[in-house]
Amino acid sequence: MGKKIGVFVCHCGTNISATVDVEKVAEEAKKKYPGVSYATTYKYMCSDPGQKLLRDKIAEEGLTGVVVAACSPKMHERTFRNAAVKTGLNPYQVEVSNIREQCSWVHQDKAQGTEKSIDLVRMMTEKTRKDRSLEAIKVPVTKRALVIGGGIAGIQAALDIADGGNEVILVEKDASIGGHMAQLSETFPTLDCSQCILTPRMVEVAQHDNITLYTWSEVESVGGYIGNFNVKIRKKARAVDLDLCTGCSSCWQVCPSKKIKSEFDTGLGNRTAIYIPFPQAIPSKPVIDKEHCLLYRDARKKNIPPEESKVCRKCYDVCPIAPVKAIDYAQEDEIVEVKVGAIVVATGYKELPNNVYGEYGKGKYKDVITGLQFERLASASGPTEGEIRRPSDGKEPEIIVFIQCVGSRDPAKGCSYCSKTCCMYTAKHTMLYKHKVHHGHAFVFYIDIRCGGKNYEEFSLRAIEEEGATYLRGRVSRIYKKGEKLVVLGADTLTGSQVEIEADMVVLASAMKAQDDADVVARTLSIQYDKDRFFSELHPKLRPVESSNAGIFLAGACQGPKDIPETVAQASGAAAKVMALLSSDQLEREPVIAKVDRLPPPVFSTCIGCFYCQRVCPYGAIEQEEIKARDGSVIKTVARVNEGLCQGCGLCAATCRSKSVELAGFTDEQVFAEINSVEFN
Amino acid sequence: MIEALRKKAEELLRSNTVNVVFGYGEGSTPERTRPVFITKPEDVNKLTWNQYCVYNLTTYLKRQETRKLGKPAIIVKGCDAKTVIVLIKESQIKREDVYILGVTCQGVGEPLAVKCKACDVHTPRIYDDLVGEKVENKELSFDERYAELDEYEKMSEKGKWEFWQKQFEKCIKCYACSNICPLCFCDRCIVEKNQPQWIDPSAHARGNLSWNVTRAYHLAGRCINCEECQRVCPADIPLNLLNKKLAKEAEKNFNYRPGYNIDDELAMSTYNAKDNQDFVK
């Protein structure tokens, strides 16, 4: 039985009707297209009355197929399909012909716009005639989430998801959770102590019944698909048994290697070879730095297992745990396999190192430091216990210069973007400085001051007006050493004059960059990243926490530069998405997926197994299937689509030379009918 | 050399290393050869080797009839060996399931085949055993290797269009080109798919065009230019001109030569951020 198709042409106000004669499009459809039994126009098809019209006419006219000629299917395909479902029509019998973006918006001549619209609607009608009803695919959901990264983004997401009653596995590659936020001194715009507000949350993570924490661990591989990811986590050997260790601190007190640059203190302070990164670390249990530990160095040199080295076993000897010591030099990496339903990526950022700019001393001047280093100087837990002192000689700087946009907004250094946080933290730095060095003077070189955010503008003004920081609009061309001083040469573009400041210390507001291994992480997770290697959100406005891979969400600075409030908000957003996903027992997936044909023996499939499809599939959805005879011998190896992983992009179908792959909803027959309808009319 | 080849074949068959040897035998006239499939050691004298061994025997690696004979040893020239590499890369045969019996070659055909003029693989780049004196593979420049396109590329776009229309007019849709091609290995060719019928099977202008263009596209970035399609074409269509042009584009844009190195990733299914993007406008 032939289909009864209804064509609904939308005016979109005048968006479409100004350049397309919508009445004529409807008339042509009704008069000439085979299968069309009803055609009309309406001012706004997406409006409630518009949808009602669609529903009513499906019922009254007994329509079995619908073409809505309107905007891009990206906008309202779901709207119209949902409307049709209410009348009992299968949603995949409803198609959208895009006559707005493709006709009215790109044509000025109404006759041309109309002619093209008529063609497009005819093509879509031909496709609709061959539409088949499709049923949503149901996949089960594993009610457990993985959070990658234990900074504030990962902590927030993990806590929210866990509070929602779901199991969470939190993986952190460092020895402790906390991330960059733990390194900060005070936070803008309220100047409350960063660690004071963060550490309670870290403790919550450690104590939460629903959270399993893996520190000193990394995600090795991710397989599977939304609702059903298979994750392998590598627990790196930390040479300390976490179950036995009580964190008594005896070991790191006796460790003889005391001059190792502390990563947590950004190289400004020292740590031992067996260490906890900072006093409030979670877990508060040490790890051995095998690069620097005397025992491991000796073992490497002699090529013997570390437990056989006798060079230094002070930490082992002092460990009070008995009868089995908590120190275990022979410990090896362990791989843990877990199944999760959703993943939150919160891998954070790294600061642009300060050796990038030759004109700023290329990292050779000890007193030219980065913003993060200043945070450590200003922090009560830092190497100077919160006193602002020059790294070179420990003197208090009386004149300090802050330079904004170091790396940021500088395509020459690979960061064309604004790092967003630097204006605010520089204003904060000037205040912290003034609060500690009352007689000192702070200068700030800036390009623009960008302080969008609640109470942000006021905060920045306070730095200038109340705390007396001198803001100079212009860039610094050079810094050079003159005796103990650093001469800063810059421009003040507002007065049009050259400025030369003899400073004691210079702080660079360095750009926020993607992590060095962001691309590797992206490939492991099959998610997309942008030119700066920040992970891409699915839609810049409407889907800001979803990655390009269904079931994987983004939180924090791994997606782009962000401050703490924004990071926390996004993390909670990602957590909400995860909870929505984990709240159902089964997931409904779009049935628009590819399928490799299967035929009766002796052919089995026209697939010849060249596996080009497997190589081009961005989602890893193509598997190899061995077709076996009864005796178990392999007759042929062909491609098969994993329904859970397939996103329906159609690359496999396009690549297949023998046309053995079909994409549901976009079958060869449908596409062929569309093309043919243009050629012959 | 013939003796060495026969001896090696006999050895392989006697030791049961292989079940069959694909080689060249004498043809009906002295300037002809034909493929032979030796399954018994006592038959190895049927094998021959001379300058008329133009064919690319690797086409028999794809055929059901010859596959049934068991594990083959295949006699390949430098050019033919490239096909074996592509077949391995495209999962059509496993490396361990074929014994590659390489022969060194200074060019075949009387007069010398066009492909031999642009040859820089006189010694195969992959083999299990090599028969014949090892010949130095002289590296040819990009331009030298694609010299046969010089005349063609001088034509205007319109001229090329008219040229091919005229050539394809001659096509009788015998599909000899696809049958002989070692890389046309699909069980069901796109031309045999009739729901929908993408390519009109009758021999008229429109179907001829879509068939010949589709065939060439399906070989883009894969064809090793053995020229077998052109050799067997009863209508004398210069098919390899199309293949060669596409090969040139593949090398120019993706720095890829099919079958040249077994470790190279296939150009047509590999994404590389450094790929030439100039065509995106």
Key structural traits:
A: 681 residues, alpha/beta, 34 strands, globular, B: 281 residues, 11 helices, 34% helix
Rg of chain A (CA only): 31 Å
Helix content of chain A: 25-40%
> Mind telling me the C-alpha Rg of chain B?
19 Å
Oligomer: heterodimer
Can you tell me the overall shape of chain A?
globular
Question: In percent, how helical is the residue content of chain B?
Answer: 25-40%
Give the biggest sheet of chain A. 5 strands, parallel
**Average pLDDT across residues of chain A?**
94
How many strand segments of chain B? 6
Number of strands of chain A: 34
Q: Quickly count the helices of chain A.
A: 18
Please identify the structural class of chain A as seen in this structure. Answer: alpha/beta
Could you characterize the architecture of this molecule?
- The complex is a heterodimer of chains A (681) and B (281).
- Chain A has 681 residues and is an alpha/beta fold.
- Chain B is α/β, with parallel strands linked by helices.
- Chain B starts with a helix and ends in a 27-residue tail after the last helix.
- Classes of the chains: A alpha/beta (681), B alpha/beta (281).
- At the A-B interface, helix 16 and helix 18 of A face loops of B.
